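Q: I'm teaching a short session on how sequence maps to structure, and I want students to see two examples side by side rather than one. Could you give me a first protein with its sequence written out and its structure tokens following it? Keep the formatting plain so it prints cleanly on a handout.
A: Of course. Example one:
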Amino acid sequence: MRALNRRLKDLAAEGAEITVTNPGARHNTGVGIFHPCKINIEGSVGYYSASMIDGPEITIHGNAGWALGENMMSGKIVLTKDAGASVASTIRGGEVFVGGNVGARAGISMKGGALIVKGNSGFLTGFMMQKGRIIVCGDAGEAVGDSMYEGEIYVAGNVGSLGNDAVVEDASEDELLDVWATLERYGIAERPTFTKIVSGKKLYHMDSLERLEKAAI
């Protein structure tokens, strides 16, 4: 994998369009690439694939293990099938699109960018989210948006439950139009009604609450 990633980095620096065949679901495929380029991976990948990238557009024709796209700064990742837990965790920019379902903790600690899921997402979607947008076209599991500070989560299907300090807010027409336009870019023509989930912002005052608790002891 070191040799493959080194070769990908060299080709990316030239702005090449690259195809990787027979990836064999190996871990850490296509990590640490910092130049705009296009990479097509013909098959499934393991965990932490396409992570720590800044600029490339990576299309994966298959499934991915957990932490796909972790810590992405910019660029785009398109996965045609399912992703494991912690997809798009800690990303700061760019877009991650998953054509199937995703596991638990999707978008954990996101600091920007967007995660679009055509199918369902697992529990703790958007856990500790700080900024950005998550769009789930199917159902979301328990504790959606738990401990989130900023950002927006849109769920078209059923919401298992809201997480700590997460609340439902009415989505404006302009917001829905923007979400639908995002879906159209990925070939999703349907215009579902979304539940918009945001932070209740009670955790913003945790420090002041802690001081009051100490004073009462």
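Q: Perfect. Now a second example for contrast.
A: Example two:
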Amino acid sequence: MLAGQAQKEFFVNEALSLLDALHARAVTASQAAPPASPLDGACYRVTATATGAWVGQEGKLAVRIAGAWHFIPPADGMVIYDRAVGALVIFRTQWQPAAVVAAASGGTVIDVQARNTLTALITALKTMGVLA
């Protein structure tokens, strides 16, 4: 803020609203269109192909503050929790959800299935940034 700046409280309130929305690192959902009746403080991950007020904001986080949308570009390594699907999503040049790992089933050689399942688990954990 600058000395003598008009409407200082607006800038402080907006900054605090952004911190409040992003502190939890959780979004209500990942979707391409803004909700019909968003509440202030709501946070969404904008997916392709964005429509309405979100056109051109794909990949960003949309936060509703004082009746207007504010868009935050993700930083590399940012992890968010998508409440709609109940899963983490990580940003590494683009948003990447965790891989779905299927349990091993069938077959006559259990060792091969176990190795494949472990490989899939390790890959999923690397994608989520749990393993380097």
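Q: What should students look for in example two?
A: Point them to this: The chain is about 25% helix and 25% strand. Also worth mentioning: Helices lie at 8-23, 110-127.
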